[in-house]
């Protein structure tokens, strides 16, 4: 056994190879990939600055959890219902506010997301307030066990218990990236980009820009809801604190890290961000846990400032598709 | 693909039908719109609170509704007056349900929060109006100010007055330094709205977690008297709250006068109105921008100390105030300092009134819903002039 290093700055190699830990980190990276794919559709390809993605995530997660744990509904049935509820909220937010200028839209959507979080925190009969909702993941657990058994049958016996969720999360993420990239090449996807480049020109060609933007927002909201379910399953509970505006901000960090107008870049951005964030845990600095936690976010902030100042199109973004400069 | 909008026989899509419905509603006679709006407002108030429980209450409620609609008639195209009438309607319904004393008491409670919102909003709106910068780090300026006061007041054990002065100076210095090293170079590169917004989010992270790095997440208190209360006219208010209200209002009046009367204030408002035009007319814009940051950050520092004095210090103190401050900025009309000032105070009071009929944890949600409704009905703000939004 290796002794933990005692020099002030060092890395504990032992923990570095902890597969359970990195599976969990991988799931978070996958969830944020999915979350930010919705932002990519809105910001990178439609040019609408959605800052309410955490709110849509909350609606998806809460609808699923409330219907399953409190109403006793079948878990699989709650998923399409929560998609419908999220789309309804997407339309509710988009119909009045998509007509606004970009900055007003950003403020309106973040206000919407915060209103949702405050309601979740205070409507105790419905959401159980700050204690949150538990016990909605029985159906998932049985699926997870069968996946685990299947992998064990294949010959890998030391499967981390979260590995099935890891597979499903990244399966969904890859599927979404593939589908969205394909959709972006269809006439529908090209209209979105036309609207991003010049909304008036798109309208002059007879395209109903408002309707397209609304569709883009509703789809992004749905993708946010999917991220919400996965987050709920990963944590095994749903609490309002998981849907702070900071979540949306980190989604934007993932987005610009991977590059705008590039769906596959989102995954790269999420993997880089989570590896760096969680890898910092293993740096043995002579400071407390809180200080290290704070340091992680200081680094996130500096990365965001640096990227925006020196490489606004992101690491893998295309300069000609840069949507930030206007 | 759908056909062009102008093509004959074009079937309107859902989005177009919605746009048409909105346009048709916008063309309706003013009285109809006003009546419908007030009806919905009163309905929400009654549903959130309780249905009238006697015939007399029904009559009074209907009378309030009728008087409000009638009072709105002469004010077509004067949104500030309409907003005042609507506010009067809300006050009347609340007095009918909860009595004059409770309404007055909550109103007084709301004034200290309103002063903080107003102090935060004046600076934010000027920066927003002049630099087109949606500054998400403005809330963290407040936190910064509060912790600077903590440093002087608690760590160095000096009176809070020195803490306030130190907080204003250091926060102002922070604002100017950031303008010099970050915002001015970014503007020279022609950075866009979202680019600047994301930078401000990064900056907010650095300030907030920098504070957390140094002081941790535990709740801290400034050395102020939290128990003493002052009574007048049957109303009670904490002594610290009263001081916040008085100092806050004096500062706000001075700010308003300064913007109205001094050359610098006029130049700031000119820049906020139209930067290019101001520059053409010979104003040294980079100097005025620097003063704007000095002024905006200084007021934010003061607001932060006040917020810390009436609540507790923690690294998210300012961020939690940011969205209501943004609400005040939008209500007042972006770039309009007087609007932000008035809207901040009104918002603080209205948010506190809302606790008369809903759980107090939801009071901020009320602020956000007001923000969204105003953005929908009148995105240029209650005090703003109609421009492209």
Explain what the structure shows.
The complex is a heterodimer of chains A (about 325) and B (about 400). Chain A has 14 helices and two strands. Chain A is mainly α and about 325 residues long. Chain A has a single domain, classed as ABC transporter involved in vitamin B12 uptake, BtuC. Chain B has about 400 residues and is mostly helical. Chain B has a domain at about 115-360: ABC transporter involved in vitamin B12 uptake, BtuC, CATH 1.10.3470. Chain B contains 14 helices and two strands, in the order αααααααββααααααα. In chain B, helix 2 packs across helix 4. Chain B is globular and about 65 Å long. The model of chain B is unreliable at about 1-5 (pLDDT under 50). Chains A and B meet through helix 4, helix 5, helix 11, helix 12 and helix 14 of A and helix 1, helix 6, helix 7, helix 12 and helix 14 of B.
List keywords for this structure.
heterodimer, A: mainly alpha, ABC transporter involved in vitamin B12 uptake, BtuC, two-stranded antiparallel sheet, 2 strands, disordered N terminus, B: 389 residues, mainly alpha, two-stranded antiparallel ribbon, 14 helices
- Work out the number of β strands of chain B: 2
Q: Provide the spatial order of strands within the biggest beta sheet of chain B.
A: 1-2
CATH class of the domain at 114-360 in chain B: Mainly Alpha
CATH third-level topology of chain A? ABC transporter involved in vitamin B12 uptake, BtuC
CATH architecture name of chain A: Orthogonal Bundle
**Backbone structural class of chain A:** mainly alpha
Q: What is the SS-derived class of chain B?
A: mainly alpha
**How many domain modules of chain A?**
1
Walk across the major sheet of chain A and give the strand order.
1-2
Summed over residues and divided by their number, the pLDDT of chain B gives a mean of: 84
The oligomerization state is heterodimer
């Amino acid at each position: 056994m290796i002794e933990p290093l005692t020099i002030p700055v060092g890395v504990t190699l032992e923990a570095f190879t902890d597969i359970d830990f990195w599976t969990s980190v991988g799931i978070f990276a996958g969830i944020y990939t999915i979350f930010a794919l919705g932002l990519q559709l809105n910001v990178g390809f439609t040019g609408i600055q959605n800052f309410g993605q955490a709110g849509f995530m909350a609606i998806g997660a809460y609808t699923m959890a409330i219907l399953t744990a409190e109403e006793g509904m079948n878990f699989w049935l709650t998923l399409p219902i929560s998609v419908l509820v999220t789309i309804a909220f997407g339309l509710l937010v988009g119909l009045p506010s998509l007509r606004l200028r970009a900055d007003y839209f950003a403020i309106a959507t973040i206000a919407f997301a915060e209103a949702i979080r405050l309601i979740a925190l205070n409507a105790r009969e419905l959401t159980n307030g700050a204690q949150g909702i538990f016990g909605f993941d029985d159906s998932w657990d049985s699926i997870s066990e069968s996946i685990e058994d299947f992998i064990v049958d294949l010959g890998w016996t030391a499967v981390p218990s979260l590995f099935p969720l890891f597979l499903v999360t990244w399966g969904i993420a890859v599927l979404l990236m593939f589908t969205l990239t394909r959709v972006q090449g269809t006439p529908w996807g090209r209209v979105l980009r036309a609207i991003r480049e010049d909304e008036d020109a798109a309208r002059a060609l007879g395209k109903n820009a408002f309707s397209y933007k609304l569709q883009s927002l509703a789809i992004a909201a749905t993708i946010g809801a999917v991220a919400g379910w996965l987050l709920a399953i990963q944590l095994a509970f749903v609490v309002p604190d998981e849907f702070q505006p900071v979540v949306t901000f980190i989604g934007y960090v993932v987005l610009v890290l991977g590059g705008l107008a590039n769906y596959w870049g989102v995954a790269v951005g999420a993997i880089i961000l989570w590896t760096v964030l969680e890898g910092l845990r293993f740096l043995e600095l002579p400071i407390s846990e809180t200080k290290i936690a704070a340091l992680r976010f200081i680094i996130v902030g500096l990365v965001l400032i640096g990227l925006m100042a020196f490489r606004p199109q992101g690491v893998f973004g295309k300069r000609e598709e840069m949507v930030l400069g206007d | 693909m759908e056909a062009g909008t102008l093509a004959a026989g074009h079937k309107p899509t859902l989005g177009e039908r919605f746009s048409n419905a909105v346009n048709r509603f916008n063309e309706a006679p003013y009285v109809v719109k006003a009546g419908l709006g007030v009806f919905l407002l009163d309905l929400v108030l009654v549903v959130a609170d309780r249905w009238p429980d006697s015939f007399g209450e029904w009559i009074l409620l209907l009378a309030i509704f009728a008087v409000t609609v009638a009072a709105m008639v002469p004010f077509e195209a004067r949104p500030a007056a309409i907003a005042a009438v609507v506010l009067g309607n809300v006050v009347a319904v609340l007095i009918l349900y909860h009595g004059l004393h409770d309404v007055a008491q909550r109103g007084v409670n709301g004034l200290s929060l309103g002063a903080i919102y107003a102090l935060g909003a004046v600076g934010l709106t000027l920066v927003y109006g002049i630099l087109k910068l949606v500054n998400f780090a403005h809330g963290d300026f407040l936190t910064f100010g509060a912790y600077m006061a903590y440093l002087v007041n608690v760590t160095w054990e000096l009176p809070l007055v020195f803490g306030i002065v130190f907080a204003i100076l250091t926060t102002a210095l922070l604002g100017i330094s950031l303008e010099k090293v970050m915002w001015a170079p970014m503007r020279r590169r022609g950075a866009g709205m979202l680019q600047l917004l994301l930078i401000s989010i990064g900056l907010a992270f650095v300030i907030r977690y920098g504070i957390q790095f140094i002081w941790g997440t535990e709740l801290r208190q400034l050395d102020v008297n939290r128990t003493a209360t002052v009574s007048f006219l049957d109303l009670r208010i904490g002594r610290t709250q009263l001081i916040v209200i008085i100092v806050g209002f004096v500062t706000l009046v001075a700010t308003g006068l300064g913007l109205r009367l001094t050359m610098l204030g006029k130049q700031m408002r000119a820049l906020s109105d139209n930067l290019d035009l101001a520059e053409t007319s010979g104003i040294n814009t980079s100097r005025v921008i620097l003063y704007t940051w000095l002024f905006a950050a200084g007021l934010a520092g003061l607001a932060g100390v006040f917020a810390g004095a009436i609540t507790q210090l923690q690294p998210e103190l300012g961020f939690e105030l940011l969205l209501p401050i943004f609400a005040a900025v939008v209500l007042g009309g972006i770039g309009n300092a007087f609007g932000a000032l008035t809207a901040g105070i009104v918002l603080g009071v209205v948010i506190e009134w809302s606790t008369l009929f809903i759980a107090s944890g939801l009071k901020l949600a009320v602020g956000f819903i007001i923000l969204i409704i105003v953005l929908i009905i009148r995105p240029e703000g209650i005090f703003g002039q109609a421009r492209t939004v």
